[in-house]
Amino acid sequence: MGIPWDDVVVIQQRKDLSEPCIVTVNCPDKAGLGCDLCRIILEFGLRITRADISTDGRWCYIVFWVLPHPASVKVDWESLKTRLLSACPSCLFSHHFNQLSTSPSPPPIYLLKVWCLDQKGLLHDINEILCNLELIIQRVKAMPTPDGRVLDMFFITDGM
Known about the structure:
Protein name: ACT domain-containing protein ACR
CATH architecture of the largest domain: 2-Layer Sandwich
Function: Binds amino acids.
Keywords: Repeat
Structural class: alpha+beta
Helix content: 10-25%
Order of helices and strands: EEHEEHHEHEE
CATH class of the largest domain: Alpha Beta
Domain ACT: 111-160
CATH topology of the largest domain: Alpha-Beta Plaits
Number of domains: 2
GO molecular function: amino acid binding
Radius of gyration: 19 Å
Number of strands: 7
CATH superfamily of the largest domain: ACT domain
Oligomer: single chain
Distance between the termini: 24 Å
């Protein structure tokens, strides 16, 4: 069972600015796959206008109609495709084999601490840089200190 790796995630660009782009995912199914794919799409500044999900419990075919958010600058479609591919189970092994194998341990969570003076927009800038580096931000804590500084703590995992 398997399909060419190029056909797992297909992104069709829109022909007109009023039309959505079409993102198609065709891979083995796993629990929570739809949520993972939606989260990745939303992290890239896209709005999901419509979705169609078909599955038989082993294989799934998902189509998303997406529009770039008006505030987003530019969508990196190749990075989006790479991230969506990384969320899909491998097509080389059957679904049955994947169900029998032990579940992998969760990726390690790293802590990035940033001490700075309170600067407007810095939290957003750091968030954008981490996303461009394909790091997944699990949680952020921003704590002001009495001396006017701010401690921003980013709990991150590798997106790949």
